[in-house]
Amino acid sequence: MIRKILVAIxxxxxxxxxxxxxxxxxxxxxxxxxxxxxxxxxxxWVQHGGKAKFEVDPxxxxxxxxxxxxxxxxxxxxxxEYGDFVLELDFMIDPNLNSGVQFRSHVRPDPNLGEVVYGYxxxxxxxxxxxTGGLYEESGRGWLKDLSDREFARKAFKPGQWNHIRxxxxxxxxxxxxxxxxxxxxxxxxxxKGFIGxxxxxxxxxxxxxxxxxxIKIQVFD
Length: 222
Hints:
Elements: H1 2-29, E1 33-35, E2 45-49, E3 53-57, E4 62-66, E5 74-78, E6 85-93, E7 99-110, E8 114-124, E9 135-138, E10 142-145, H2 151-154, E11 163-170, E12 173-178, E13 181-187, E14 195-200, E15 210-220
């Protein structure tokens, strides 16, 4: 009887050890976070679209996008393309400007504009409508998931402050959080891979508007 008990304990310990090993293996397999912005330079980034100005504020360690009137939407884009990933960043925006974060996006030549960026976008919308965190297709179908029926998500955005975005793009499922509140979720099959971009929306007047981005990091699952 004692022998049976000891055997049972040994078997239990083996299974327990296997479980711990499997958990450790799973944790090891979790991709490491990579910084997409070093806080000092725009290395690894390239501008497409319009002629808005992108520069680095070294004190804030932030990318600053500044409007230029009468130019098309401007985007600062990663040189690399990404498929499955989790992206996190912080942003702060002028209340009279619109912006967004492109992902799985591309650029095409245009006879009138020079080039046009197109693809998925996490909306940044500080207007009273407050659809920050909605899913939009830039230069394509438009809104894929707005926040018209998600009042709790619209309230997550903090005007005049730093805000946090988390985006999960895995297979064809997209989930977006704003300051820890899930704003949008959608399934769409149009694009599987592309660059990440930071938008400065076009403006008509000469008033200077800015959007800032920092702490831009990515976890790649490709």
